[in-house]
């Protein structure tokens, strides 16, 4: 899909790395065996891109915690980036597995192992999970059987909004380091959950309007969160809107 799909021209072909084997949904294969075979090539591409930047702020990483590559190889990559670019920010957008939408019985193990690595090698990790995105697509967007395209488009819209302050003028989060400053109260507690509003289908968007107060209230509704949890049972230590 990335190489031949509708958005193939977004990526330079020299920056696409593939391998003859996959990680087979196994953290250990992604981190210790298959991952070791391509980590140096991957880092070389990072170095070339970094050298071509006039003012590198940091890295944005998108990966899942359920698969072997997203968990194992990304953990290995983050460790290497932390060593080579220790002064640069590393922000992650991570997709957690869900028992209701599961493709492998080992997803929980991969997620636990990858989370441990993320504690030390990522400055701020925005959490999402498959069940929450499926639920939003079905309930808010009236998509009976959401496809991966539907899920990815929803996630990309959320990510675009989170990073909008990097591309447009604003008072908050004008560079990558400010995400950490504004959203991370303690170094190890760097897993903010994300909420998006308004979310409505094309059909409703034409005749349903929402006030600023309604949009703000929806941002604190568990049904609009990209993670299935209820923050009302705890306390907000940091928040950006």
UniProtKB/TrEMBL annotation:
InterPro entries named in the record: Alpha_tubulin, Tub_FtsZ_C, Tubulin, Tubulin/FtsZ-like_C, Tubulin/FtsZ_2-layer-sand-dom, Tubulin/FtsZ_GTPase_sf, Tubulin_CS, Tubulin_FtsZ_GTPase
Keyword Hydrolase: yes
Subunit structure: Dimer of alpha and beta chains. A typical microtubule is a hollow water-filled tube with an outer diameter of 25 nm and an inner diameter of 15 nM. Alpha-beta heterodimers associate head-to-tail to form protofilaments running lengthwise along the microtubule wall with the beta-tubulin subunit facing the microtubule plus end conferring a structural polarity. Microtubules usually have 13 protofilaments but different protofilament numbers can be found in some organisms and specialized cells.
Gene3D superfamilies according to UniProt: Tubulin/FtsZ, C-terminal domain (3.30.1330.20), Tubulin/FtsZ, GTPase domain (3.40.50.1440)
Source organism, top-level taxon: Eukaryota
Domain Tubulin/FtsZ GTPase: from-to ranges: 1-170
GO biological process: microtubule-based process
Chain's role: Tubulin is the major constituent of microtubules, a cylinder consisting of laterally associated linear protofilaments composed of alpha- and beta-tubulin heterodimers. Microtubules grow by the addition of GTP-tubulin dimers to the microtubule end, where a stabilizing cap forms. Below the cap, tubulin dimers are in GDP-bound state, owing to GTPase activity of alpha-tubulin.
GO molecular function, one term: GTP binding
A GO CC term assigned to this protein in UniProt: microtubule
Record keywords, A-Z: GTP-binding, Hydrolase, Microtubule, Nucleotide-binding
SUPFAM superfamilies: Tubulin C-terminal domain-like (SSF55307), Tubulin nucleotide-binding domain-like (SSF52490)
Family designation: Belongs to the tubulin family.
Name used for this protein in its record: Tubulin alpha chain
Species name: Cacopsylla melanoneura
PROSITE patterns, alphabetized: TUBULIN
Reaction catalysed by this enzyme: GTP + H2O = GDP + phosphate + H(+)
Organismal lineage: Eukaryota, Metazoa, Ecdysozoa, Arthropoda, Hexapoda
SMART domains in the cross-refs: Tubulin
